[in-house]
């Protein structure tokens, strides 16, 4: 069973997309070449491709969850310009395929690198990224690690219902043992640049619940017959913390850009 079983609709509707400032960093990091190609690993419902896919000639998006990929298909086919070649691949980041001779100008891994065999994925990418290409690994803080007071209160409620260890579907989440930048620096993409992009969001009780149900640590099915009790506790707590029904979150995207050593073609 996938860690995200039962979350697809919530993921599509309530997961925050990619902010314009983050999209601009990614586009600027991509090699300027023809054709310009994007490879998005762990695409989920396609948030990254929705944000920057129209700046590329060809896009390959891969995900191991068939439900996520189906949702990505529905949204991306309608959103991308007709002249963008889109290929959706049902595969893990360790086993994805690309057309023969196809190399990426930019690889994006958003909110998904922690699920992967990191050295194996980066070794695989060495043969699938153009000489001037870039690997971008990035994420914002989830509710589990956020420090806003109302998010801390939400996390406390989750632990009261599901236990103090962070869940990963039916398992327990395993934390990365080293910073992603260090792992990236040990790969073929050893020239690493770190970019931080602040983001402010406004939530409602409904969107918070929707977001929680999109995660592996608070998927709706995990609460079983206590789900309505959980929802009541969340709504009650958020009402106490909200101002006119709104909840403000200050977050940040941490972006690691990895490139090969040696001469590079210009980027923009």
From TrEMBL:
UniProt domain Methyltransferase: residue ranges: 39-133
Matches recorded under InterPro entries: Diverse_substrate_MTase, Methyltransf_25, SAM-dependent_MTases_sf
GO biological process: methylation
Keywords: Methyltransferase, Transferase
Pfam families, per the entry: Methyltransf_25
Any one GO MF annotation of this record: methyltransferase activity
Name of the protein: Putative methyltransferase
Native species: Planosporangium mesophilum
């Amino acid at each position: 069973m996938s860690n995200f079983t039962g979350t697809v609709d919530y993921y599509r509707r309530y997961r925050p997309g990619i902010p314009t400032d983050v999209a601009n960093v990614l586009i600027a990091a991509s090699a300027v070449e023809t054709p310009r190609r994007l490879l998005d690993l762990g695409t989920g419902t396609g948030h990254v491709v929705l944000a920057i896919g129209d700046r590329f000639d060809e896009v390959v998006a891969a995900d191991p969850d068939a439900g996520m990929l189906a949702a990505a298909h529905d949204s991306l086919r309608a959103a991308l310009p007709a002249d963008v070649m889109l290929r959706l691949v049902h595969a893990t980041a360790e086993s994805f395929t690309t057309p023969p001779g196809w190399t990426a100008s930019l690889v994006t891994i958003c909110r998904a690198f922690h699920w992967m065999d990191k050295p194996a994925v980066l070794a695989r990418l060495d043969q699938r990224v153009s000489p001037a290409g870039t690997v971008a690994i990035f994420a914002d803080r989830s509710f589990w690690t956020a420090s806003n007071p109302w998010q801390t209160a939400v996390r406390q409620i989750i632990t009261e219902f599901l236990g103090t260890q962070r869940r990963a579907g039916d398992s327990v989440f395993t934390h990365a043992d080293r910073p992603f930048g260090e792992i990236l620096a040990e790969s073929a993409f050893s020239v690493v640049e770190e970019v931080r992009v602040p983001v402010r969001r406004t939530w409602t009780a409904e969107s918070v619940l929707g977001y929680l149900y999109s995660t592996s640590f608070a998927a709706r099915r995990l609460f079983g017959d206590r789900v309505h009790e959980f929802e009541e506790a969340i709504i009650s707590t958020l009402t106490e913390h909200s101002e006119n029904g709104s909840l403000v979150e200050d977050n940040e995207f941490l972006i690691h850009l990895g490139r090969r050593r040696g001469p590079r073609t210009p980027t923009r």
